[in-house]
Specification:
The protein has five helices and no strands. The chain has 151 residues and is an all-alpha fold. It has a single domain, classed as dinb family like domain (Four Helix Bundle (Hemerythrin (Met), subunit A), Up-down Bundle).
């Protein structure tokens, strides 16, 4: 497997690792400065993936659906993040093989850096929302977010 694709897949598993550790009741947690709920951050991550799929490989959009703010459940998030993760894998594989990603410059490796940076920013926001609302993640989970060699 290509190392770029494998890096994306590890990152996606880290997102799901965090999501799986959060109690459903805590998906409505928000930070002290308000803004998105934990669930809305995860939905945003997924929906931005769809935006990139639309420009880079629209034929993959059939396997995923946009997540609306209303009625977000943990199962829905897990299912859709899994599906969009697979679709992004396919898009990255194609982009690496072709040396370019339609709609993104300069190249596929930069796209990987961009999307991981974007999603990691929101992962940090999620952890902050949980902490500030009195539901901090377990220390084992916090350290596990950095265990890329075992995820």
């Amino acid at each position: 497997m290509n190392e770029i694709v494998e890096t994306w897949e590890i990152h996606n598993r880290i997102n799901l690792y965090l999501l799986n550790s959060i109690e459903e009741a805590h998906l409505s947690s928000v930070s002290l400065s308000k803004g998105r709920t934990v669930a809305e951050h995860f939905a945003h991550i997924h929906n931005v993936r769809l935006m990139w799929l639309k420009s880079g490989m629209p034929e993959l959009l059939d396997s995923v659906e946009k997540i609306d703010k209303e009625n977000i459940t943990k199962d829905l998030l897990i299912n859709q993040l899994n599906q969009s993760g697979v679709a992004i894998t396919k898009m990255i594989e194609k982009a690496v093989n072709e040396g370019k990603l339609k709609g993104f410059k300069p190249h596929p490796t930069a796209f990987l850096g961009y999307i991981i940076s974007h999603e990691s920013h929101h992962r940090g926001q999620i952890v902050l929302c949980l902490k500030q609302s009195g539901h901090p993640i377990d220390k084992k989970i916090a350290f596990g977010l950095w265990e890329w060699g075992t995820r």
